[in-house]
Amino acid sequence: MEDSIKFLIAAWFWLALVMSLFWGIRSTFLFANSRNFWWKSYQFIFNFVGSFAGWFCFYVLLVRTHNNMPQFQGFVGGDILLFAVSLLGLTGHLPQVTYGLVEGFAEIAKRAIDKLTK
User: Using CB atoms within 10 A as the burial measure, which of 3, 13, 42, 73 is most buried?
Assistant: First the structure.
């Protein structure tokens, strides 16, 4: 287990780059099937950055917990957030979750404004 964690820490950039490129390229075919070049570029960047952010959080979490294995003595609540963001980013769902949260807050603000103005 110790060696596999050291390998992930050492090779995380290449893993992150390859997988983020995969998610970015995949998104251009999945979400932008008949759109123009700019929409496909947007989808690529949106999903590439989301995946890379997940890999970055995974790296930070590995480095933080690596020295405290297996007791997790230095484990704090922020590590749960790092784990959640890394899980969403590694699986390619971080961009969609981010977009959904922004849309949700916009809808809440719109309804609040409607109630205040009536």
Answer: 42
